[in-house]
Amino acid sequence: MVGAGAIAGPDMRGNVENPIGAAQVPLGVAGPLVVHGEHADGTFYVPLATTEGAVVRSYERGMVAVTRAGGATARVLRDENRATPAFSFAGVEEVVAFARALPALEGELRLAAEATTRHGKLLRVEPRVAGHDVLVTFAFSTGDAGGMNLVARATTAACALLVERFAPTGWSLLSGAEGEKQAGPGLYFGGKGKSVVAGARLPAAVVRQVLGVEPAAMASFWRRCVVAQTEVGAVGINGHFANGLAAIFIACGQDVANVANSAVGVMKLEVAEDGGLQASVHLPSLVVATVGGGTAVGTAPECLGLLGCVGDGKARRFAEIVIATLLAGEISFAAALVAGDHAAAHERYGRKTTP
Amino acid sequence: MVGAGAIAGPDMRGNVENPIGAAQVPLGVAGPLVVHGEHADGTFYVPLATTEGAVVRSYERGMVAVTRAGGATARVLRDENRATPAFSFAGVEEVVAFARALPALEGELRLAAEATTRHGKLLRVEPRVAGHDVLVTFAFSTGDAGGMNLVARATTAACALLVERFAPTGWSLLSGAEGEKQAGPGLYFGGKGKSVVAGARLPAAVVRQVLGVEPAAMASFWRRCVVAQTEVGAVGINGHFANGLAAIFIACGQDVANVANSAVGVMKLEVAEDGGLQASVHLPSLVVATVGGGTAVGTAPECLGLLGCVGDGKARRFAEIVIATLLAGEISFAAALVAGDHAAAHERYGRKTTP
Amino acid sequence: MVGAGAIAGPDMRGNVENPIGAAQVPLGVAGPLVVHGEHADGTFYVPLATTEGAVVRSYERGMVAVTRAGGATARVLRDENRATPAFSFAGVEEVVAFARALPALEGELRLAAEATTRHGKLLRVEPRVAGHDVLVTFAFSTGDAGGMNLVARATTAACALLVERFAPTGWSLLSGAEGEKQAGPGLYFGGKGKSVVAGARLPAAVVRQVLGVEPAAMASFWRRCVVAQTEVGAVGINGHFANGLAAIFIACGQDVANVANSAVGVMKLEVAEDGGLQASVHLPSLVVATVGGGTAVGTAPECLGLLGCVGDGKARRFAEIVIATLLAGEISFAAALVAGDHAAAHERYGRKTTP
Amino acid sequence: MVGAGAIAGPDMRGNVENPIGAAQVPLGVAGPLVVHGEHADGTFYVPLATTEGAVVRSYERGMVAVTRAGGATARVLRDENRATPAFSFAGVEEVVAFARALPALEGELRLAAEATTRHGKLLRVEPRVAGHDVLVTFAFSTGDAGGMNLVARATTAACALLVERFAPTGWSLLSGAEGEKQAGPGLYFGGKGKSVVAGARLPAAVVRQVLGVEPAAMASFWRRCVVAQTEVGAVGINGHFANGLAAIFIACGQDVANVANSAVGVMKLEVAEDGGLQASVHLPSLVVATVGGGTAVGTAPECLGLLGCVGDGKARRFAEIVIATLLAGEISFAAALVAGDHAAAHERYGRKTTP
């Protein structure tokens, strides 16, 4: 059994204050999942911590379908993190002058920022005027860490320089425009975590045998969901990204609050030219880490270890496995709804409480 | 220590498949937090499971400020859950005829739905035409459970009746329009979980002494964030709702994927007429439970027990404590950014890794 | 020629201040468009005022396709208008008490509101708590007028009663939550203008002959647009709703600023079971009038007259023609992009200026 | 009188098909408005074509307030236009390979694109992977024209090269991701038209005398609207941007459908340190032109002439006047609601019809 002993108090230093023990979440494993990534290439069994019966089974079913179809292709498209301080000025002249002055200062700002960190690299500084306020995005590469602590520290140093030189009437290190732990369409424009994509083509026979449905019905389901989700203003199109993300994040010592932004994305199901199912998922803002944060705490190293994702140089590998897992989960979720057995599956695997 | 022993395999039946053990998350406690609710009235110490150093300390600081100011007022405004099946038809005539026929069928649908559940009550059926598709919301009261399983089961029964009678060209039990585990502005229109509100008025002296900032600077920070978050299309205004939610949800055996929708909401900071700080938070879609799901698993009963929130009749009490906790967390987060010590606090309490 | 003489100064009283004349916009006509509505049933030629070459031609081509396919079905689903005043209070207790008191006051509020108007009927009063503020929607039926003047007047009267009784710390008649002349997903939840839908089924032969494309390519185009528009956070899915709306609104004396909200909606293109094209459009917030505002000014009566939409009892008829026109426009726009002749059409019909 | 004679048929060639005359819209003028821009510096009287009584008067009142306070500062921050074609591929490998190949092709694409236009310059090519689709933004500077025709033509040429080389399974010249005539938060990220900002500081005495309200009440109104508009998912914060935009666009021969995207933006009202009112507006996507389209048709040259904005080199000047006008309109609208005379003003200036 993973996690048979409790985390010792001293192990928690740096991760929690006023420690009183450790919360426990049931841990299952789903697989096999074949992934063809640039960083992850192989067959994986994915640890999922959840208390919702049927979630592991559902993801596993999708993984089996994807794997029988030859696996999921996964890619990391962009990989960075950011803070977006906001600076206020009394007049539009000052606001615009400030914004226009920044490009010439990028070298100085980089020196100030990077002096505070060994792993963070300042990629760019992007000012945006918004009335009497200016939003300034500091985008960093943060290696295999989530990186918000280093981003905050480095951006603080850069801001000190700006505050001294431009004397804004007010400012703050974070404004919310960075999208830290917040959902919103702004995340599609990149810069908060990893933009990742995965896709698979499932022959019609696999769709029928493993999932019990027709590809055309899956595609029709997707089109129905598109309209439904648009008509409530959803910030993406998906079945249940958050289920898989929360379960992997808890299992693997991730910062679980990042589910808020990481669960934004787009899933697409179409009938392929050969009559099979063409499926893809895109997450613009997946925040995952293999060093720092909770990645060394409790059962996280064991779970990351299951995926070969412990430590330096593994964050993109982990990201590819995560996005492939979500792809499998979407396919399975859609199939359950198309087949009409969604409620039944929850009955079968869920708790046997009085309804 | 809470959670010193691992969850036994048999205890996980109904919560996870392919069990391999239990994930562990460091558990701290923050308080005291005085809450004046209709269901929760008293002083609370709130369990928070997180691996992000400084989160517990930050929430605690906000709780101290709120408590010294006399506490937070909290209310549950609305309490229901729903599924929104979508039905497709070949023509607009059929679509509109279907939608118009539903009100007269509400009694029959209620009978069919409620026959499947002892705790769920069908509150209403709301059709919405959307081109060739019709979205039909089935809204239920679900007692103290999250209730999606009972909602799915009951809605399946009602849909069987509709499918038989109207023969849509396609349909699915969930469409995404219900907002289950998805963020989006549609959540403000109610119906997914509990709509909850909390507020507090902090005398200027408390703001200065406990938080080290001026009320006017807090209000100015809020106005800056409003513009920043609007300019990225954020679906609400907040500092870090997701941090507190994820930490309480893990601690208390909630369905953590519900962070996706629960973290949508609005925070407001203003200078009160007496010069103090007037703060409020509104979450339209908080999904919490005190029975069912993971609430009886592992360390969850102990954590819910800390709050007097175990079992029947406690879900609204729990919701009031959660929203009051988030209010405290927002105040503290804002104060850290106003004082310029956000990065420093993370340095102090975070892991001592190489930057 | 329509509009050969200028509007006389006296005719403008009530429509504009500091009058210096009349702006002129070229006016074309597109048709025939066969509409099967509940209020509009027949063949129509639709006046469109625009300066963008190719717009009239494009809409006309879509109309021909729809008409050859037997016409468009159109329906008005909901028809109302509203104001949403916001009331602020110092504490959450007061806020919630206020919101809970409103249902019992609905009769009194109706009396006060309806005393100010002969045509407006108060349909309902809906309070929503949002932290220290309460948003209260007053929804009215407004007959054949746009109705914002009567809504404002009637809501002012109702608010006077509330202000006197509850003494909010602040309030305002409009808050923006009503969606007046603003785009946003909130419009899908109804209450600002008319919710209207139109659909058509075009046999494959019509799609090929009139539009020069394959139904499958049209459907593929739609799926591509869905992903694209989701990834920028668009508040709907459409090709160019705003073109048709602006052109009809100018021609027919509508309040053109209502394009902002009226252009929110969803278009869907699918391959029908018989291999043809199944197309639909849904606008949740179409604001049109056949009495009041500019409907009696200048060339508006002539243009409304072309459609048999002058005066009382004609607003829903007009709405059905408008939505059918937009359906035609979407089909034609999509076909131009699928065929790759979008730019070419603008070359052909647009101004012959140096590129 | 402006527009005393109708537009002659031949004058409309290139602007409309099937011409039957000219629609007429009452034209008023509001001023004086003092603007301090980089392109517009002086006192202006702004032509507004509308049929909504009180709109001209309301904008004029705001202009008087701004002018007495010394005028509005206005700036154009960014000025470009774009098309965003979407390309589909069968697999994620091909999708990612295509996206990664584009930077190296930018030179070739520029040659192909710019060979089709004398005024358009290709600024950059930005690919974004979105599952099995790739969105590729072609951003152009378009001089003083709106420029969509040249953008479409130039992008068509560039796409021909891409289609030949990469053989996508499908593609289209426009996808909706460009935001052409559509509202959405994506517009804040720039690239569709001009990003413009204006601000003013009004001494408390001016606010009281001209507008009849207190600055603090104006700021409180803004905060209330922020919450209200957030809770309906509005894509910005504003009072009635669309009124002023529609009125100027009709008067000045603009493409009126661009109200849909141009009306997205943020307004902010705060109490300044000296107790006055600090007001600002930001529009990220203002599409205006002084050459091409309808700018030479009917009464447009006269109206543009009033502002000194006829022809080449005047589009940014025009944009600064427009944004300053909207600033004035927002101030006046807010003041009317704060003073409680919004409905009364519409009574006074609106049509004297039976209520």
In short:
Four copies of one chain form a homotetramer. Chain A contains ten helices and ten strands.
Provide the fold topology.
4 copies of one chain form a homotetramer.
Chain A lengths: L18 E18 L4 E9 L5 H14 L3 E12 L2 E3 L3 H23 L6 E10 L2 E9 L6 H19 L3 E3 L20 E10 L1 H8 L3 H16 L10 H11 L7 H4 L3 E6 L5 E10 L13 H7 L8 H25 L2 H8 L6
Parallel strand pairs in A: 1-3
Antiparallel strand pairs in A: 1-2, 3-6, 3-8, 4-6, 4-7, 5-6, 8-10, 9-10
Largest interface: A-B, 133 and 133 residues
Low-confidence stretches of chain A: none
- Oligomeric status: homotetramer
Euclidean distance between termini CA atoms of chain A: 31 Å
Order of helices and strands of chain A: EEHEEHEEHEEHHHHEEHHH
